[in-house]
Specification:
This protein has helices at 3-8, 13-23, 29-42, 50-60, 65-73, 82-97, 101-110, 130-142. By secondary structure, it is mostly helical. Helix 2 (13-23) packs across helix 3, helix 3 (29-42) runs antiparallel to helix 8 (130-142) and helix 4 runs antiparallel to helix 5 (65-73). The longest helix is centred in the middle third of the chain and has 16 residues, at 82-97.
């Protein structure tokens, strides 16, 4: 579908537009709405998901898997994926001290330290990410099989 036709169709919305551009066909309304919901719920991350974005862009540009991954990995920093660097420092400390995994975990519990790179700092089963809850509820309600 030419972009001029897509732009002229005021009923498509972003989800319908993505369906036509990426899948080259109209998808059911509930799928288009799901695409929009995914975009809305991830928009609050703004530019801080650079690694994922760059990996996708490189892959869509035809780069091989390794090059695409390198593109994303190269953008890991304190605003995206920085917990991995902190996790590496923590695990290296534990290794250098000769701690077993259990000893390391007990030390972190005793010092009330979060083990970086494991889970999410503020989200848990008791405090779920509202974005995940919204997407799961929508999928369960609108998709024939989930």
């Amino acid at each position: 579908v030419p972009i001029s036709e897509i732009a002229a169709d005021e009923t498509l919305g972003v989800g319908g537009t993505i369906a036509l551009l990426w899948f080259r066909r109209r998808l059911p309304q509930y799928v288009s709405k799901f695409i929009e919901l995914c975009m809305i719920t991830t928009a609050d991350h703004g530019p801080c998901v650079s690694g994922a974005h760059n990996t996708i862009v490189a892959a869509r540009a035809g780069k091989d898997l390794v090059s695409s991954l390198i593109s994303g990995l190269a953008t890991i920093g304190p605003r995206f994926g920085g917990a991995l660097d902190d996790a590496a420092r923590m695990f290296r400390f534990a290794f250098d001290q000769g701690f077993s995994a259990a000893e390391f975990v007990e030390l972190c519990k005793k010092e009330k330290k979060v083990i970086m790179g494991i889970g999410h700092r503020v989200k848990s089963l008791d405090n779920p990410d509202a974005r995940v809850v919204l997407i799961k509820e929508y999928a369960r309600k609108h998709f024939p099989q989930t």
